[in-house]
Automatic annotation (TrEMBL):
Regions of compositional bias (Pro residues) in chain numbering: 7-19
Protein name: DNA-binding XRE family transcriptional regulator
GO cellular component, one term: cytosol
Alphabetically ordered keywords of this record: DNA-binding
The species this protein was found in: Actinomadura livida
């Protein structure tokens, strides 16, 4: 498996755990947090969203927990089921990662938190 290279290696030269303390969150973890936040803000249970996206509830759960590296097709399907565009979801994940301090757990407050969708395809970022 490929080695993950981080811009700031740990001071004690021990190999860090990806996404662990002192490391920035992984993209798949930030994606999962955004998906779960959107789903719960809509008041939906996992099974409802999974059904509309055409994925199994187990797979969606694994996406939300950041344990799966979903394909772009799967991400687009879940985004569509949550009434957001793939571009807006990607922007929200990137904004979350840019605002996350190194070592912060995924879902920790950032400078631009994601809010609920404003419309069928609009994805608002709160200031």
């Amino acid at each position: 498996m490929a080695e993950i290279v981080r811009p700031f290696p740990p001071a004690d030269d021990t190999p860090p755990e990806p996404g662990g303390p002192g490391q920035e969150p992984l993209w798949r973890e930030a994606l999962g947090e955004c998906l779960r936040r959107l789903r719960t803000e809509r008041g939906e249970i996992l099974v409802e969203t999974a059904r509309r996206a055409g994925v199994s509830p187990q797979y969606l759960s694994e996406m939300e927990r950041g344990v799966k590296e979903p394909s772009s097709e799967m991400i687009a399907a879940v985004a569509g089921a949550l009434d957001v565009t793939l571009a807006d979801l990607t922007l929200a994940v990137a904004t979350t990662l840019l605002g996350a301090p190194v070592g912060a757990p995924v879902g920790a407050p950032v400078s631009a938190p994601v809010s609920a969708p404003a419309g069928p395809t609009a994805y608002a970022l709160a200031a």
